[in-house]
Design brief:
Elements: H1 3-9, E1 11-13, H2 16-27, E2 34-39, H3 46-57, E3 71-75, E4 85-90, H4 97-102, E5 113-118, E6 132-139, E7 143-148
């Protein structure tokens, strides 16, 4: 079963490293210029998932939550096979799509890129129609569940 099929069914991880490994495997399947909407409450592992995406894309920088900076840009070294740029956006503090336009994100979305958006519901009208939606949650007290939607 492919990683996408497994994620559509839903995958439960038992540790942060498992979540990162899952995201790294998923990153390898992403076509160029992909937007990912990461849904879920605070503390469910959205940033941990993005750390795994970064690993899978060949980014060696330490990925942290961009809550106060609003977004962070990470580039895989040019020698890496993917050569992609990862843009990690935390829309929690945004109130409308005009605010996202003012961030000039388009300047950083140089193909090939992956845009991972935390709190995507805040800017839903701005997201491309082909955005892939992932829902993250906590189950059984301390396990994390990731499911790829439509």
């Amino acid at each position: 079963m492919s990683i996408c099929d497994r994620l559509r069914t839903g995958v439960t991880t038992h540790a942060a490293e498992e979540t990162r490994a899952l995201a790294a495997e998923f990153a390898a399947t992403l076509p160029p210029d992909t937007t990912l909407a990461l849904h879920g409450d605070m503390g469910v592992g959205k940033t941990t998932f993005v750390q795994g995406l970064a690993q899978g894309l060949g980014v060696h920088e330490h990925v942290t939550s961009p809550t106060f900076a609003i977004y962070s840009v990470y580039r895989a070294p040019a020698a890496q096979a993917t050569g992609r740029t990862l843009v990690h956006l935390d829309a929690y503090r945004l109130e409308n799509e005009q605010q996202i336009e003012a961030l000039l994100l388009d300047e950083f979305l140089v193909s090939p890129w992956v845009l991972a958006v935390e709190w995507p519901e805040k800017i839903a009208p701005w997201l491309p129609a082909n955005t892939q939606h992932l829902t993250l949650s906590i189950v059984d007290g301390d396990r994390h569940h990731v499911r790829l939607g439509k």
